[in-house]
Design goal:
- The protein is α/β, with parallel strands linked by helices and 358 residues long.
- It has a domain of 135 residues: Up-down Bundle (Glutathione S-transferase Yfyf (Class Pi), Chain A, domain 2), CATH 1.20.1050.
- Helix content is 35%, strand content 24%.
- A 6-stranded antiparallel sheet has the order 2-1-4-5-6-7. It has a 6-stranded mixed sheet with strand order 8-12-13-3-14-15, sandwiched between helices. A 3-stranded antiparallel sheet has the order 9-10-11.
Length: 358
């Protein structure tokens, strides 16, 4: 069991929520707007970053931008707290001591799937990069620090480009930093894809062939020397654009499946959802020796009854603790007594939860 307790205060629609959890999956159901996704979002804040909605901290306060919020949890036997006071940045405490957000990546592995990701294969490369980097971060916690280092150096380089600074001496140090971090980022991504493909099982949720496609048609973003040389050679073009146009931040994720190697983007809506679930489940299996939290929002969408039942069998067999959401209790009937059920509704302007038994 990874998460044994969760407490929310003034987070989104919740004035207060106190949950004790066990190893069973938790099926959270209720009408749209009742607050069930907010529980999953709160759990996702136990990972580095802005959580599954990508929202700034002030927007997560129940009473508006001038209020604060707090999340407390007992996770992998340790006390975790995160929150934001009015007008202040988000803080993270681990066993009552302040730590950077990146420390959370070493404590927990949080994996999520939300409805917006159903469009992953037809959406922009940026969305697929974020998806890939979350998978990579779950497998290699140092990925967060590498991404921060790369982004910081790139922001400084972009500032020079916008200011039309032409002196090469200003660029070399930043490009060296980008090259070292960028090469490590690419190597991490490639290792993550190999791990995911090795842990797919096929069946109702088909295995996909995954490829990392470097931006701008370049073949190797794993070699720092190659990245540094390319950045130097493209300064003129980047100066004209006012930003860095090449590097690991332009990579894309490709996926295809089946004997015909069908591209994911050309598959049906149901098959695209099944492919996503295949990757998420493989991600959890690849972390069998780590504390894993799996968050599946509106997971039943685009799945028929047989595929839902197959999914629940796979979830219950995972070495992970799972929280699922849906609009009605009937969507989780196939889980039977294997899952806890939490009914959520609105009362006096706030969310309220009641645990239900079969």
């Amino acid at each position: 069991m990874t998460l044994s307790r969760l407490s929310l205060a003034q987070f989104r629609s919740w004035r207060r929520l106190d949950l004790s959890l066990d190893a069973r999956p938790v099926a959270i159901f209720g009408p749209n707007g009742s607050g069930k996704t907010n529980i999953l979002e709160a759990v996702s804040m136990l990972a580095p970053g802005r959580g599954l909605r990508g929202a700034p901290a002030p927007e997560q306060a129940r009473q508006g931008l001038d209020a604060g919020w707090r999340i407390r949890a007992r996770a992998d036997g340790r006390a975790v707290e995160t929150g934001a006071l009015p007008g202040q940045p988000r803080i993270v405490l681990l066993d009552d001591k302040p730590v950077p957000q990146t420390a959370l990546a070493r404590l927990l592995r949080v994996i999520w799937l939300v409805p917006a990701m159903d469009r992953l294969w037809t959406d922009t490369p940026e969305g697929r990069r974020r998806f890939l980097d979350r998978i990579t971060l779950s497998l290699m916690p140092d990925h967060a620090d590498l991404s921060l280092a790369y982004d910081k150096a790139m922001r400084e380089r972009n500032r020079l480009l916008r200011d039309q600074i032409g002196d090469p001496g200003w660029y070399r140090a930043l490009e060296s930093q980008m090259a070292e971090a960028g090469g490590a980022i690419t190597r991490n991504r490639l290792k993550a894809l190999a791990a995911i493909m090795a842990h797919q099982q096929g069946g109702d949720f088909p295995a996909a062939r995954l490829v990392l496609m470097p931006g701008e048609g370049f073949a190797d973003d794993s070699d720092p020397a190659s990245i540094a040389a390319r950045l130097a050679s493209m300064r003129g073009r980047d100066l004209a654009a006012g930003r860095t146009l090449t590097g690991p931040h332009r990579a894309d994720l490709g996926a295809s499946w089946g004997p015909q190697d069908m591209p994911a983007a050309l598959s049906s809506t149901g098959e695209q959802k099944a492919l996503l679930l295949s990757l998420i489940l493989a991600n959890a299996r690849a972390l069998a020796d780590q504390p894993v939290l799996l968050l599946l929002d509106e997971v039943a969408a685009h799945l028929d009854a047989d595929r839902r039942a197959a999914l629940y069998d796979l979830i219950c067999a995972l070495p992970a603790q799972s929280l699922l959401s849906g609009t009605g209790a009937e969507l989780f009937e196939a889980m039977g007594s294997r899952a806890r059920r939490l009914a959520v509704h609105r009362e006096d302007g706030a969310s309220v939860a009641t645990e239900e038994t079969e």
